[in-house]
Amino acid sequence: MSEWEASEIIPEPLKESAGSLLSRLGTADRLAAASFTGKPADVALVDTMRTAMRRLDAAYVVYRQRSSGPQSERVAAARVLGAEIEEVKAAAMGAV
Question: pTM to 2 decimals?
Answer without folding.
Answer: 0.70
